[in-house]
Every structure is written in C-alpha cells, then in structure tokens.
Amino acid sequence: MTQGFVASFDTRRRRGFVQLGRKADLIPFSVHQSEAALTTGDAVEFAVIGGKAGLMAQNVRPLRRR
User: Fold this and answer.
1) What does the pLDDT look like over 23-37, one tens digit per residue?
2) Of 22, 29, 57, 61, whose CA is between 20 and 30 Å from 11?
3) 3-class SS at 56?
4) Which residue from 43, 52, 50 is spatially nearest to 60, judged by alpha carbons?
5) Residue-number span of the structural domain to which 52 is assigned
6) Residue 29, domain CATH
7) What is the pLDDT of residues 3-58, one digit of tens each?
C-alpha cells in the first residue's frame, strides 16, 4: 500500500484526487457510499493500479491516528 494525502474530494460525486507528495502528480480515485468520508488534507493509504486512462488509486482509506 502507498501513503499520501487527499488533494481534493467531491462529497457529492464521491470522487477526488490523491497526491504522493507535495510535488507529485495527482492520481484520481472514487469511493463507494459505504466507505469512510474523506476531506482535503486527510492522510490516506491506497493501491495504485493502471487503467485505460492511466494510473488510478484504489482502496483509498484514511490512516488511523494514534
């Protein structure tokens, strides 16, 4: 799993972008309604997969804060 941050997230469409670092490219993702709500700036972990249109983040979930 890869770790990064939510760069943007549209709660209505349940789609957004994650970023690996401050200067890294944005990777699109979408979540199902049953999954946790995300907000911009949240630290997350995810898997990166290749798709027809390029890279996509899958299984995006917030990191637990200790």
Assistant:
1) 778 999 988 755 667
2) 22
3) strand
4) 43
5) 2-62
6) 2.40.50.140
7) 999 999 998 888 999 998 777 789 999 887 556 678 889 999 999 999 788 999 99
What tokens does 35 get? 């999954």
Instruction: Outline where DSSP puts E strands in 1-66.
Output: 2-10, 15-19, 26-30, 43-51, 54-62
Helix (H) or strand (E) holding 49: strand 43-51
Residue 26 CA from chain centroid, whole number = 9
Report how many domains make up the chain: 1
Amino acid of residue 32? H
**Contact (Cβ atoms closer than 8 angstroms) between residue 28 and residue 56:** yes
* Whether the model pTM is above 0.85: no
